[in-house]
Amino acid sequence: MQTAFPGRWQAVLFSPPSFENEDDMDLQANVLRQLKNRREGFSLEQPFYIDQDYFKLDMEMIWYRDWLFIGHDCEIPRAGNYFTAQIGDYPVVIVRGKDQAIRAFHNTCRHRGHRVCTKDKGAAAKLVCPYHNWTYDLDGSLVFARQMGETFDKAEFGLKTVHCESVGGYIFVCLANEAPDFAPMRASIEPYLAPHRLWEAKVAHKNTIIEKGNWKLVWENNRECYHCASNHPELCRTYPEAPTATGVQGAGDDPFISEHWARCEAAGLPSAFNMDPTGQFRTARMPLIQDAESYTMSGQRAVKKPLSADVPISHIGTMLLFHYPTTWNHILGDHAISFRVLPLSAEETAVTTTWLVNKDAVEGVDYDLEELTHVWNMTNDQDRSIVEENAFGIRSPAYEPGPYSVDHEGGVMQFVEWYSNFMTGRLQGDKARLSVVA
After folding, report:
1. CA-CA distance, 52 to 345, in Å (whole number)?
2. Are 218 and 364 in contact (CB under 8 A)?
3. Residues paired with residue 342 on neighbouring β-strands, in sequence order
4. Phi, psi (deg, nearest 5) at residue 307
5. Of 79, 100, 99, 85, which is closest to residue 354 (Cα–Cα)?
6. Dihedral sign, CA of 135, 141, 105, 337?
7. DSSP H helices in 205-319
8. What is the pLDDT of residues 1-54, one digit of tens each?
9. Which of 140, 348, 420, 429 has the fewest Cβ atoms within 10 angstroms?
10. Going from the N-terminus, what domains does the chain have, and what CATH number goes with each?
11. Contacts of 191 (CB under 8 A, 6+ apart)
12. CA–CA separation, 199 vs 83, rounded Å?
């Protein structure tokens, strides 16, 4: 028999966090004050990196309301293929339907809340909750619920949907009831991604590491190469340490980079630095050093088969895609690497790295997996250590915000500026409360 309290049921499982109590209001006021009084060009105050209440506010204001990179089309190439992820408190499942459409759902059974899909990935004709075998079609509709009575209406208990968009082989999801408009991002990044045909690539390797530091420290470390020469010997064999390398600081004034952009664009590859007005996402095709073509110890291609036949020239460098708060990417002529950031707590962050290659490339024939992954496996581990030591030092009562290098850390300053402006806008100007799909 249907529950007599459907509204109450939904409120317990999916209602937005409340900001009505005095402690929450005091927290918001304090965070807003600190952001408004932030010293420009300096790191954030200590609580932004270690405090659980500040972390919760990040989740509620950013992670539960905005588009997040979650995976690739090619991870679920056939109907019934799925993968799962955990976004804060929300387990989600992404599945390809019989109509080939990619959909996302809250991975929570409508019976008693058990996770429907308990594995990281899989394939199934239907999604079956292992607790009581409630069975859902690939479009989320409930098709079987044993012995629920004559008045039970299956149509009322389909899986709760999550907003889902795919662009250029990248899948983004949004937990909010009303998602921000995805069209501007699609229009901006799709031309840069399209020539690489990543929707028909394949995953050569994927791994996840846990970095014991706040998600913002993970991003700050990523946004500069001031530390590269002393920490990343493998990466520095092919990736330039120059502050212009990420496109943020004066790349257009560098004749070497300008020449690279002109050469690639003449071959039909959009390349010039392109950033949205808010600074949340951007693209640029940047050259590697000397004659390097790929992130390998030799600088030579790691994969014999080109990633895409639509890329007609060699030495295209790396197509950089950044989207706060979840992903940075390197797309080369022979393979692509995506990085996904998902916060676990105030001082733990999961970073998932995925290597994509041509769908017809054969391991051991067209590429050696160790050669393909070595540079970024080493770099990721080095960055993990840096973030953890950074977090360790920030916990000290002696910590206070320090100055960024104007010459080398423009990317970090841009990230912190985006975060500060974004959170300030949400805290003082957005009266709508967080509204997760119910």
Report:
1. 7
2. no
3. 350
4. -60, -40
5. 85
6. positive
7. 215-222, 228-231, 255-266
8. 333 323 322 323 333 344 456 778 889 999 999 999 999 999 999 999 999 999
9. 429
10. 19-64+184-438 (3.90.380.10), 68-174 (2.102.10.10)
11. 270
12. 16
Average pLDDT value for residue range 324-333: 98
CA distances (Å), 84 to each of 80, 118, 144, 220, in order? 13, 8, 22, 27
- SS3 for 163? strand
Backbone phi, then psi, for 336, in 5-degree steps? -130, 150
Output the CA torsion sign for 243, 248, 254, 256.
positive
Which residue is it, tokens 């629920």? 148
In this structure, are residues 75 and 436 in contact, taking their beta carbons and an 8 Å threshold? no
Q: For the segment 153-163, what is each residue's pLDDT rounded down to a tens digit?
A: 999 999 999 99
Say which DSSP state 70 is in: E
Helix, strand, coil content of the chain in percent (nearest 5):
35, 25, 45
For residue 6, is the peptide bond before it cis, meaning its omega torsion is within 30 degrees of 0?
A: no
Cβ contacts of 301 within 8 Å, gap of 6 or more:
293, 294, 333, 334
- The amino acid sitting at 382 is Q
Are the beta carbons of 286 and 247 closer than 8 angstroms?
yes
User: Sign of the CA dihedral 219, 225, 231, 232?
Assistant: positive
By the 8 A CB rule, do 216 and 419 touch? yes
Backbone angles phi, psi at 214, to 5 degrees: -65, 150
List the structure tokens of 136: 């859902």
Instruction: Report d(CA 306, CA 358) in Å as an integer.
Output: 7
User: Residue 404 contacts by C-beta under 8 Å, 6 or more apart in sequence?
Assistant: 41, 42, 43, 412, 413, 416
Does residue 350 surpass a pLDDT of 50? yes
Strands in 274-275's sheet, in edge-to-edge order, are 202-211, 348-357, 336-345, 327-331, 318-323, 281-286, 274-275
Strands (E), 175-252: 202-211
Q: Which two tokens stand for residue 362?
A: 């054969």
Cβ-contact 232, 222 below 8 angstroms? no
Which candidate, 358, 166, 204, 184, places its Cα nearest to that of 283? 184
Single-letter amino acid code for the residue at 145: A
273 within 8 A of 308, measured Cβ to Cβ:
no
Q: What count of other Cβ atoms lies within 10 Å of the Cβ of residue 378?
A: 15
Residue entry with tokens 């950033």 = 275
CA 28 vs CA 37, 52, 56, 215, 344: distances in Å: 14, 13, 11, 19, 21
Query: Where do we find the tokens 């009505």?
Result: 20
